Amino acid sequence: MLAVVIVSWNVRDLLRACLASLIADLDAAGVPRRILVVDSASTDGTPAMVRAEFPSVELIACDENIGYVKGNNLALRSVCRLWASCERAGPDAQFAWLLNPDTVVHPGAARALLAFMRAHPRCGLCGPKLLNPDGSLQHGAFALPGLVQLALETQPVLWRFRNTWLDGRYTAARYEGMPFRIGHPLGAAMLARVEAIQQVGLLDEGFEMYAEEVDWAMRMRKAGWEIWCVPQAIVTHYGGASSGQAGERAERLKWLSRQRYYRKHYAPLKRWLAMQLVPAQYRQPDDGAAG
Description:
two-stranded antiparallel sheet, alpha/beta
């Protein structure tokens, strides 16, 4: 039984479309599933919609907005009993698919991701090919971030090099071919191997949102796991549907999360240089600890 986790906040209509596409794809693939929706105190009728229209979905309705990372971990912990009985539950119990509510799963996506993971036992984390709502390519796979990517984002004189290979992007042609190794997938639709999660731990709750998937991928890589993109699996991602509601707070969280990532994974000199590139209004004193 495949565990699918979706954390939502005030995106009822997008979540409805996501669940409908997901269930249709899993039904077509014949994949037994356990779908868990963690709703962070939405005020748009999301919990009522899930209960009424998707009775097979397990709803965890929170009394407060607990954030993306804690929401995912809450659901992942609840399936630990399933993970402990993987052999009895079948091969798909080895995987947990974290989906954003503003995604639409294309036919065959789950089958392609699961088939790849079964064929590549050292793959700990993989993501699909992502599309924008207009059908154009959305970069959904990236090299692990370094100083160059940070400089390209924060230094206007370098903006002409953004969205290039210097910025950690892979060429569009890569998404038209075979699966390829990457630094990390975008967290909107990433499939994780339970064995890898058990080795490196759940998402780091020091990240409320942003950079948590980068940290997860880095921890898996350090533990010897591979990270891949599987273009044969396609998911449309609207992007920013929940975080866009948070405005300035979301921007602040983005930079706080990145600084946490730098503290965890950069050597002292590289970390110091990274902090000089962080916008001054979001910069935190670096005490050398990730917290």
